[in-house]
Design a protein that fits this description.
single chain, 606 residues, alpha/beta, 6-stranded mixed beta sheet, 4-stranded antiparallel beta sheet, binds adenosine-5'-triphosphate
Length: 606
């Protein structure tokens, strides 16, 4: 059957990795993942099959341009006889194995997100995009769950099959003619798996080249394959029409029983559980490797090499194939708007990240307000144990209350890598959307609420300007702590590591904050640490703001705020106050910039 659509060819692909050894990441020995594999994938259903670790996902990733090009020792991939570079990953459609979707959005919203970012607005109006989403929903049979949320660990959503179909839909919205899928049936029950392959087969009949890796399909799935590539230990042991594979192995002396599933039969051959009948080409001492040698000597391989030779003769190596569209389909500000709006929706639909933060701040503010209710102006209560103690307590809350921010980039790491490498949006857009959509509702608004309640309950300076400066300081303390958490979050991929990395600097900053340890009497060699302490800058700023112009008394003495600050070695001038705010701002900007750099450095290759 001849179908129209792109033809992908790959020739002599040799892919190897160098394994790192030990703690110091010493370069270890090279491991061959793909050993000189060649093939042609035509329009229709192309399955890559093989046992675990045989290299099927690696082959799929290499031909889809998703595997680190540094590992490609030799070989090239062509689409319609044009050389493909790793740019293919930005323009081809790749459905990853673990459906990466935003769980708090509905099926329709997820598809709309993909459409909005991947179709150029100058060619598609909003109406066209809506029609596109509706037609994909129709095509994939998702009408019944179109307005159901995908689901998260806290929210029951659509079924596994619907989720997989939605993942496929995320790619179909761009009308790709070349579609890659990594194990599309893994984790699905037999009927759902069957319906997914039937869907793919239907799509392929409309002029698409569909290539996927699959482990061990049942017969109703296997019989829908047009082309089969069987892999073992990084080598191809059969590549040709799927319905001729049993015959090919029969020719090698492997007999498939009448009721045996061909897919099981092939894996049994590879695993050595079926042996060739007497008088047929024997497997030799190498066992499995003779299967690949057998294939290399076969007519299928000879024909393939002949076809490849003809196809590559016409190739102009200077022409790069996949330059059809620029890196991103949409402009920076358009992307920012779409991604921000999704982030806000996600925050609002995730009560534990949005409302919980607000409620926690209110409860804590009332608690602090009750403990330090209406602090008197009489000595000695007015100072060290009440005002300064309360400030220290407040700053601890501002800093440690932001520990949750470390999960920000970790929890969405897979989603970000997938979307960013599929060309949805720029890294800067994702970063800024997090900054705007997380910082404003989750960090600044709750802090202002917290400050208003605690400030007036504690009876601090009754002056609106002083209150605003107090709230500003609290916000800057909170923002610099969040920025440090962002930096840690963008640098590591596990929560356990992130928790250690964030707790350590926070504890050090607290110790060198000037309240627990007298900074003037500290060992000189450690005193530099105070310059990096969010606690110290925050504490000094709120102290100056509160103490300036205040008079504290007891029966016999009068102490002004300025006298107290002079005793403590605090510079209470206007510049003295603002230098703390600038330092907090500086910590925030440095950490944010480094967090962005870390996001850029995340390894996007598989
Ligand atoms: N980046 C990598 N680093 C180290 N080893 C790798 C890497 N990529 C692939 N491998 C190794 O290459 C071999 C083939 O891996 P691949 O994932 O392609 O197999 P697979 O056939 O898809 O297996 P599975 O069905 O279990 O996914 C495995 O031994 C795997 O450990």
């Amino acid at each position: 059957m001849d179908l129209s659509g792109p033809i992908l060819t790959f020739q002599n692909l040799h892919y190897c990795i160098t394994e790192n050894q030990g703690l110091c990441n010493r370069k270890g020995k090279k491991k061959d993942i793909l050993k000189d594999v060649s093939g042609i994938m035509k329009p229709g259903i192309n399955a890559i099959m093989g046992p675990t670790g045989s290299g099927k996902t690696s082959l799929l990733d290499v031909i889809a341009g998703r595997k680190n090009p540094q590992g490609l020792c030799s070989g090239q991939v062509l689409v319609d006889s044009k050389v493909v570079t790793s740019d293919l990953r930005l323009s081809s459609a790749y459905v990853v194995q673990d459906d990466i979707l935003m769980g708090t959005l509905t099926v329709r919203e997820n598809l709309a997100f993909s459409v909005n970012l991947r179709l150029p607005p100058n060619q598609y109006s909003s109406q066209d995009k809506e029609l596109k989403v509706s037609s994909v929903i129709q095509e994939l049979g998702l009408q019944d769950c179109a307005d159901t949320k995908i689901g998260t660990e806290f929210l029951r959503g659509v079924s596994g099959g619907e989720r997989k179909r939605c993942s496929i839909g995320m790619e179909l919205v761009t009308s790709p003619s070349l579609l890659f899928l990594d194990e599309p049936t893994t984790g699905l029950d037999a009927n759902t798996a069957n319906s997914i392959i039937t869907l793919l087969q239907r799509l392929s009949r409309n002029g698409k080249t569909i290539i996927f890796s699959i482990h061990q399909p049942r017969f109703s799935i296997f019989r829908q394959f047009d082309h089969l590539t069987l892999m073992n230990k990084g080598e191809i042991i059969y590549a040709g029409p799927a319905n001729q594979a049993v015959g090919y192995f029969d020719g090698l002396g492997y007999k498939c029983e009448v009721f045996n599933n061909p897919a099981d039969f092939f894996l049994d051959i590879i695993n050595g559980e079926i042996t060739p009948v007497l008088g047929s080409p024997d497997r030799g001492p190498g066992g499995e490797s003779s299967l690949s040698q057998g294939y290399q000597k076969s007519l299928y391989c000879k024909q393939l090499m002949e076809q490849l030779k003809q196809m590559t003769q016409a190739v102009d190596p200077t022409v790069k194939a996949v330059r059809e569209r620029s890196r991103y389909a949409t402009a920076f500000f358009y992307q920012l708007r779409v991604v921000c709006s999704r982030t806000v929706k996600n925050i609002l639909r995730n009560p534990q990240t949005s409302y919980a933060q607000l409620i926690l701040n209110i409860i804590f503010a009332v608690l602090v307000g009750l403990i330090y209710y209406q602090i008197p102006h009489t000595l000695p209560e007015a100072l060290q144990n009440s005002r300064i103690g309360a400030f220290f307590f407040l700053i601890i809350n501002m800093v440690f209350g932001n520990l949750s921010a470390v999960e920000l980039f970790i929890s969405e790491r897979a989603l970000f890598i997938h979307e960013n490498s599929s060309g949805y949006y720029r890294t800067s857009v994702y970063f800024l959307s997090k900054v705007f959509a997380d910082l404003i509702p989750n960090r600044i608004i709750p802090v202002f609420l917290f400050s208003s309640i605690s400030y007036y309950m504690m009876g601090l300076k009754p002056n609106i300007e002083a209150f605003l400066l107090f709230a500003l300081t609290m916000s800057l303390v909170s923002l610099s702590a969040v920025s440090l958490a962002f930096l840690v979050s963008a640098s590591v991929s596990s929560f356990a590591m992130a928790n250690i990395l964030i707790a350590l600097p926070f504890v050090f900053m607290m110790v060198f904050g000037g309240f627990l340890v007298n900074l003037n009497s500290m060992l000189r060699w450690m005193s530099w640490l105070k310059w990096a302490s969010i606690f110290r800058y925050g504490l000094e700023a709120v102290t100056i703001n509160e103490m300036r112009g205040q008079v504290f008394t007891n029966n016999y003495t009068i102490l002004t705020g300025e006298m107290y600050m002079m005793q403590q070695g605090i510079d209470y001038s206007l510049w003295g106050f603002w230098q703390n705010e600038i330092a907090l701002l500086g910590i925030m900007l440095v950490c944010m910039s480094l967090a962005y750099v870390q996001l850029l450095r995340i390894n996007r290759w598989k």
